[in-house]
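Quick entry between incubations.
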Amino acid sequence: MKRLIATSAAALLAVTAGLALATAAGAAECPSGEFCVWQDANFGGQRANWSGDDGWWESWISDTDSSWANHGISGPGIKDHVQVYENAWQGGSMTICLAPGQEVGYNGAANDRGDSHIWSTGC
Amino acid sequence: MVRATSRTTFRARRVLLAAAASVWLAGCATVTPDGPGPGGVPVGKAAQDELLKSAEHRLVVDCLDSRGLTLTARPRAPDEDRVLQAALFGAGPRELSVTLATGATVTANDDGCLATARHRLYGDQRRWFRAQVTVDNLRAEAQARMSADPAHRAALARWTRCASPPGRPRSDRPDPAVAARCARETGLEDVRARLEAAELVTVRTLRRDELTTYRQLRDRALRRAAELSATTHPKKGSTHS
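Done. Structure below.
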């Protein structure tokens, strides 16, 4: 099955521009059901994790966020997407919206800018 | 769709499930212009979202079940949770990757139960991942473009002066009531509403290919989800038919 996926994926890769292959192994270390933010890129350094919303991140992680992972568990009626904002109380611009299982190891534009996040049913 | 009728060992059942999934995957490796599927696809977006989430959840639960794992709300010990994380989100390399115009490179594994469920629903994990991540972040992309607009910069400067009166240190996190009042009084609120709407139109034009793919694969997933809910046994967590 794995080979089958890899074969069809390779064929599709040829027609899908902009896709890059990441090399890091395994999902980031972030408890299931939670949203995690790390001070360093590639899920390094101190980690903050939440199962709920936080309108004002603690000072040690606010504006020092460098990588993010949504390990929310989906289900009917469950808010499983995470929206990250550059200001407290979901103010300013939304820097990223992640569905469950999605991770961002680094983002030059959103690096050290997050101040709050909210779980939602979509983006 | 997985019709494993095995009553033998757990391992045999797992092999059968994998085989059934392979047949299914082989069937969807080629994109065929399916006609309208059987009924059961709701019209409203909210109901469609629920149908997709229910189907995905069901596939994930079945997949975890085949690995001897269950999704429960009870707290798990760290080691136990790591096993669940690996099964759910994947343990191999992060093979799905898309770099957005905002600079973020969003990645995901393609080997966990979640990825397997999405592959079954959407038919093509890579195309769906790219379309979903792009479409989910259209607003973020529009807002990033908006931030570069001189009118927005000017309004934001007025807002900062309003929210940080002279003689007091600039606050990144003013009181929510003060922030909202200043957004109204300085015109930042209006500028944002106007610019964001315009930038969203631009961004939706720029990303029209991804939007088209998003709609196509979502329609396909809706048909699969409707089939799944119509053909599988109603008993939760069961893949037998």
